[in-house]
Design a protein that fits this description.
Elements (H helix, E strand, L loop, with lengths): L4 H13 L10 E3 L13 E3 L5 E4 L10 E7 L5 E7 L9 E2 L1 H16 L7 H10 L1 E8 L4 E7 L6 E9 L7 E6 L9
Parallel strand pairs: 1-10, 5-7
Antiparallel strand pairs: 2-3, 3-6, 4-5, 7-8, 8-9, 9-10
């Protein structure tokens, strides 16, 4: 888990939006078959093969979270975005991998689109489609969610859930989806 681009984006996002907080050394594994380790639980849940999700108490549109966009590669760039703000800004009470990636792509488009420059449209559209890694951090709620999109298949998943400690202890715990057993069907 710690070698994947979404993990590196999480560490970078923590440095930008939560400087001085303890960066997790690895991910605690969570599986659907066993109760999660200490700290895992509501509002987070496991959503089968797509990983983690969040069940939020409210939703609101129009909130503008902070965001930082990162680009990897020159020829065929991939985009990552770190979003920091209230979870309610996502606009849905249930946030899963698809919803988080959709929200991140919308924010990426809005950030790169310039209404006064028609030439910005193709670039903003390409960038939004190329978002492959998303980190969402809600310091007030003490949660975060990391998503990744497979550029070849388009499949999205949230392999990491983040629990943020109080401002007094400034700790971060990360939970990863445990490897699922392979089942064969005949």
């Amino acid at each position: 888990m710690t070698g994947r681009p979404v993990w590196r984006l999480l560490v970078r996002g923590l440095g930008v939006y939560l400087p001085g907080w303890t960066v997790p050394g690895g991910a605690l594994r969570v599986s659907a078959d066993a109760p999660g380790p200490d700290g895992f639980g509501p509002p987070a849940f496991l959503d089968g093969p797509t990983g983690f999700g969040l069940h939020l108490p409210e939703r609101r549109r129009g909130l503008e979270p902070d965001r930082e966009i990162y680009v990897r590669g020159r020829e065929d760039p991939s985009f990552g975005i770190v979003i920091a703000g209230p979870s309610a800004a996502i606009g849905s009470r249930v946030v899963d991998a698809a919803g988080l990636v959709r929200f991140a792509r919308r924010l990426t488009f809005e950030e790169l689109f310039d209404a006064g420059d028609a030439d910005s449209v193709p670039y903003a559209v390409r960038a939004a489609r190329a978002v492959e890694n998303v980190v969402f951090l809600d310091r007030a709620a003490g949660v975060g969610l990391c998503a990744e999109a497979d550029p070849l298949t388009g499949a999205v998943r949230c392999p990491v859930f983040v629990r943020l400690g109080t401002p007094a202890d400034r700790s971060v715990r990360a939970y990863g989806v445990a490897a699922q057993p392979v089942r064969s069907h005949s």
